[in-house]
Amino acid sequence: MNYQNVAGALLLIAGVVVIMGIITAEATYPGYSTSGNDISDLGASRPPNSIIKQPAATIFAATLAVGGVLLIAGAYFIYRGVGTGRVVTVLSLLLALFGVSALGVAAFNGSTEGSLAIHTLFSLLAFTIGGIAAIVSYGVLRAPFRYLAVILGVIALAGLVISVIYGDANPIFGLIGPGGAERWIVYPSVMWLIGFGGYLMGHSQHDQGNAVRSSR
């Protein structure tokens, strides 16, 4: 078995599932606004008086659950098949945590005060880990994608930092709303997953030139 190719397929599928799942959930949610609504509203709006729309909520939860499992599996195959060294180990752990955080968001939809704190924690973990993982992948990639991965990671983390610092006064909200700002945090990491998955499938570790480098 070519573990690297399997890892790439799993990560690419995870990214596609997340994007298409969110789009599908949005399409089945009456009156949903990508500018005014958070992504998590697809599962449940914030309490009190939380609103859960079906089938959007089920689609959203299933999307994150499937994506989380695929990420954890992809992390295992990266550890087994993408070179050796500390960078690969760290990247594998980050991807596994990324998957666990997605599962956490799916399990705790934030519809009650008790679950909202847990939901927020897992969401922040996913936002942070996704951006960091993209940057760390620099150590196992070759140009030009290694630079694109860092750019996507920096965009995700910068969006998160701005949102944390400014809160509801986030200057970006005036342009694209809270939902749009959140997508600038989430989607760069998902796009990196798709790109990274395709990269791994297209470069065997044994290819001439050793396209995916072992990192120490």
What does this structure look like?
With 216 residues, the chain is an all-alpha fold. The protein has one domain (3-202). The protein is 69% helix and 0% strand. It contains six helices and no strands. The chain has helices spanning 3-27, 56-81, 86-107, 113-136, 145-166, 173-202. Helix 1 (3-27) runs antiparallel to helix 6 (173-202) and helix 4 (113-136) packs across helix 6 (173-202). The radius of gyration is 17 Å and the shape is globular.
Write the layout of secondary structure elements.
Blueprint: H1 3-27, H2 56-81, H3 86-107, H4 113-136, H5 145-166, H6 173-202
Helix pairs in contact: 1-2, 1-6, 2-3, 3-4, 4-5, 4-6, 5-6
Mean pLDDT: 92
Low-confidence spans: 206-211
Net shape: globular
Number of domains: 1
- How are helices and strands ordered from N to C? HHHHHH
Give a quick account of the main beta sheet: strands, pairing sense, barrel closure: none
- Taking all Cα atoms into account, the compactness measure Rg is 17 Å
Count of alpha/pi helices: 6
Task: Tell how many strands the DSSP assignment holds.
Answer: 0
Helix content: 55-70%
SS-derived structural category:
mainly alpha
Distance between the termini: 24 Å
Strand content: under 5%
For this entry, give a set of tags:
216 residues; mainly alpha; globular; 6 helices
Nutshell version of this structure?
Helix content is 69%, strand content 0%.
